[in-house]
Amino acid sequence: MSQIVKVESISKSFGPTRVLDGVSFNVDKGSVVAIIGRSGSGKSTALRCIDRLESVDSGQIEVCGHDITSPKLNLHQLRRDVGIVFQSYNLFPHMTVAQNIMLAPRLVLRRKRAELRDRAQEVLTQVGLADKADAYPSQLSGGQQQRVAIARSLAMSPQVMLFDEVTSALDPELTGEVLRVMEKLAADGMTMILVTHEMAFARKVADEVIFMHRGKVWEQGPGEMLDAPRTEELRNFVGSGL
Amino acid sequence: MTLLSGAQVHFLFQGLWWTVVLSVMAFVGGGLLGFVVAILRVYGPAFVRNLTMLYIKLVQGTPLLVLLSLTYFGLPTMGVTIDPLTAAGLGLSIYVSAYLGEIWRGCIESVPRTQSEAAECLALNWRQRLVHVILPQAVKIATPSTVGFMVQIVKNTSLASAIGFVELARAGQVINNSTFQPFVTFMLIAALYFALCYPLSVWSRRLERKFHVANR
């Protein structure tokens, strides 16, 4: 399997705080990687670096063949290849669900009207919201909004999808419906990198789990590593989390 | 006490008409210029942002009367011939642009940064983000205060009388000079200004209430 994301010893500081300290990991095409860790361990920052929402101080990142750290980076093409879903959904409140989804395919991919509508229905069906195309975000529950955000990202047919604590703002029931959508995506072969606090989900769905601590990759392995932590820190984290 | 003659009433309403024309000119001209000011103030490079801020401070720190005198008496000394209407329209536009620019800057900046970030991550370029994501939300936030400011514009057009432009206030002065009934004349003038401004402030208040309901 080819590696679609390569992160090589990236470091980053916010002022005097070193949030990333030589982080390296690779992501195979079609695999699911879950990044876990305490708040402030640098996991969200690492994810945001992959989509160039943050720049790194040193190290290298390659995503879908784009060298993120290169000054010649085609940011536009990178954003077409990478989809990202945020904790706070960030849907556009003045547009309906369908308009939210069709905006980027219309403006960026220049798809035709009929094609746009079909694609919107398709991705909405994928997230189980085929009947909500004409609703406004404010009329939906948090879980539904987050699924629309996933659909909006999917509509651009990205090669990699990033999920930044997408269920952290949701109650357990709504979390469940979002996680089921993500599980289906993973089963369909989407390459996914997710920062999450959902341990059970990480263990079940992720091909690889990365435990970050103090800006470093502390432990890395298949989901089962959560059952038998090698380090004190992961043991404490798993112990307190479950 | 005799009321105004037919000719005088006609003259008064002509003044009212020019006040409306001047207000519209100030709003359109000031709005267009103010939009540019707001965009440069938010998105320009540091040097341009500072320059725009200086422009806003300068205009806001100058009496409108002085601005109008500058355009009407100042420009001709530089070889630009200018009639009172154009001079008043220009001076008012500059004045309005500084205020609307600053109001709109705040509105653009109050759209959450995450909205722009989400649009950026969908590969929208700057112009697309602005037109399709930021501005529609900013306009909604800006509407009540902008309509409210229109009241100020209407009232401030009265200063154009100082550069010899016959709008409502000046028409009142002219009539008073022949009727010597200042109380009646200026009460009438005040009532006419009120008739222009009150609907605007009601509209503004209504928009504000609607906006608050929409954002509950």
CATH topology of chain A: Rossmann fold
Structural class per helix/strand content of chain A?
Answer: alpha/beta
Run of helices and strands of chain A: EEEHEEHEHHHEHEHEEH
Most strands sheet of chain B: none
Strand order of the largest sheet of chain A: 6-7-8-3-9-10
Please state the overall shape of chain A, judged from the principal axes of the Cα atoms.
globular
Question: If interface size is counted as residues with C-beta under 8 Å from the partner's C-beta, which chains form the largest one?
Answer: A-B, 22 and 17 residues
How much helical structure, as a percent, in the residues of chain A? Answer: 25-40%
As for the number of domains of chain A, it is 1
What is the CATH architecture term of chain B? Orthogonal Bundle
Q: In percent terms, what proportion of residues of chain B is strand?
A: under 5%
* Share in helix of chain B: over 70%
The top-level CATH class of chain A is: Alpha Beta
Describe this structure in words.
The complex is a heterodimer of chains A (242) and B (216). With 242 residues, chain A is an alpha/beta fold. Chain A has a single domain, classed as 3-Layer(aba) Sandwich (Rossmann fold). Chain A contains 8 helices and 10 strands. Chain A has helices at 43-50, 75-81, 97-107, 113-126, 142-154, 172-187, 199-205, 232-241, and strands spanning 3-14, 17-28, 32-37, 58-63, 66-67, 82-85, 160-164, 191-195, 208-213, 216-221. In chain A, α3 crosses α4 and α5 (142-154) packs parallel to α6. Chain B is mainly α. The relative contact order of chain B is 0.15. Chain B has helices spanning 6-43, 46-60, 64-77, 84-109, 113-121, 126-156, 168-179, 182-214. The chains are: A alpha/beta (242), B mainly alpha (216). Chains A and B meet through α2, β6 and α3 of A and α5 and α6 of B.
